[in-house]
Amino acid sequence: VCIFFFFRVLECQGLPIVNGQCDPYATVTLAGPSRQVLHTKVKKKTNNPHFDEVFYFEVTRPSSYNKKSHFDIEDADEIDKMEIRVDLWNASNLKFGDEFLGELRLPLKFLRQSSSYEAWYFLQPRDNGNKSLKPDDLGSLRLNVVYTEDHVFSSDYYSPLRDLLLKSADVEPVSASAAHILGEVCREKQEAAIPLVRLFLHYGRIVPFISAIANAEVKRTQDPNTIFRGNSLTSKCIDETMKLAGMHYLQVTLKPIIDEICQVHKPCEIDPVKLKDGENLENNRENLRQYVDRIFTVITKSGVSCPTVMCDIFFSLRESAAKRFQGDLDVRYTAVSSFIFLRFFAPAILSPNLFQLTPHHPDPQTSRTLTLISKTIQTLGSLSKSKSANFKESYMATFYDYFNEQKYADAVKNFLDLISSSGRRDHKSIEQPILLKEGFMIKRAQGRKRFGMKNFKKRWFRLTNHEFTYQKSKGDHPLCSIPIENILAVERLEEESFKMKNMFQVIQPERRVLYIQANNCVEAKDWIDILTKVSQCNKKRLTVYHPSAYLNGHWLCCKATADNTPGCTPCTGGLPANIQLDIDGDRETERIYSLFNLYMPKLEKMQEACGSKSVYDGPEEEEYSTFIIDDPKETYKTLKLIIEGVGTLEQEHAQYKRDKFKKTKYGSQEHPIGDKSFQTYIRQQSEISAHSI
Hints:
Immunoglobulin-like; GTPase activation; C2_dom; RASA3 protein; metal-binding
């Protein structure tokens, strides 16, 4: 059994003002066998905040799904014992802690009586022995709660609907696919994006699906300056993918510096109007500049750690944008930066608690510092031509002059080149190979004979997303070219091999190995990381290697005499290419079925729109204008299959409920006498039967 809570915190009115200020935020807790706490954003300087934020909670039976971050329940009676609690807080100085404003508690037993519930509540005082307050003094809060209970069947029940969804990337046009149709009929795109992304990630189809819907959206875009700016299905799916696959990436990249900012509390206010007594504007600017510089550096140096799935998506965005707007040389960068900077790094810096970078919302001073950093990083990543004009505030434009140097734009482009490059060759690509790194190093001639020092030669090495080459000097014709798909491993070489430091090896098919010495240990690590990054998707990558060279008739590491002996040491793997996600594909398909079933009237309306568009080629009727229908006939075929699949599953669910009602004996071990949840179920079924009669 899977139970989903779609919980929307709407607004508050008349909250108390504490010490002359009210910066409220809410925490939403599902209290049960364990606790999960989520937060809204802080609303500044208002005691009538409008939040309108949506939270999702899931409760599962262990037999259906098992994940530590979700709630496990043994029977329905445990659900009735759980409750949702909403606490209102005033964000204040961390030294004294945030002030509690009031709370409300909603038992799930009450919510199960209705699938959707919306009401105003008086906030109540916390029952902790403190002096009681009158409920009227705490203000009120309006909520919208949607309760959903799903029963997940075995995998074969979902095969028709699941197969229809998974082939969405191959449907022409993609707007006629089942996944795209789900995005069209759902009230909010995010509602469709969450289960779709999880399903496609589970079956390894997320990159072709996002590539298809992104390419379709780019074709509909007229102005390159507005590319991927709306809250489309493409944007929401990429956002959700980055949240799932990129969380570890955020942790290793930003968490150390964010922790330091939260702990040190350096003054960074640069608005002259907001300066506190004793603060110096120039000192504050320097503090902020150092923080921005450090965060900018760790981001632009983190390309080798970017998860593979994100890089492949960025590569497809870059390709689509470059083909659509061939006269705009910057669009291939802005298409990627609009996600990685605007929707990933900047929000994580602004609200680190929402990305698990900090346990709590930062205090006001730290929050202000993070806001200023986030604004600057977002603008640096945008690569816009007139950056100072991006700021409404004159003090921000003045501060940004520190970063008006070409080296910052170059660093952003190099970073975007790396995370949007792919070792997979696309013969339809109009893009030139992307230069990732180049420089002089010393290489040893490839072969198996015994060589002396005379065979180590200085060469100019050049790495693109297509090949790794070397030549005598920069600009010369390559003496050797290794396609990226032929790089099977990149590993360090032990110093004992040639009595030389900072060496590494590039292993190729047929046991060919290129031994290279970098100028220093930093350069060696950089080359190993970036070579591993571009080759980590190669299907024939090795799992073992020899950490030493083959000399004098044997491997120095394991003493094996045959030069084709398999490696004796596991490959390091190098980088966290993909984060393994614990996803139940059947559960996500069930969620998608529930959404289709919920929005069945819209599916039927879309069918009507397809019929209207097929026979009438005039101006579109207003009631149909919200749907994207590029091919009415193909879309109609898909809609018919969706409605048939949903109808079949609906019958299975109805039969399951009837069987449960008939076969379960009251007084059995599963439902002993006194089981209130079963009594409620019997009463509900009796009412349904009487109504149908």
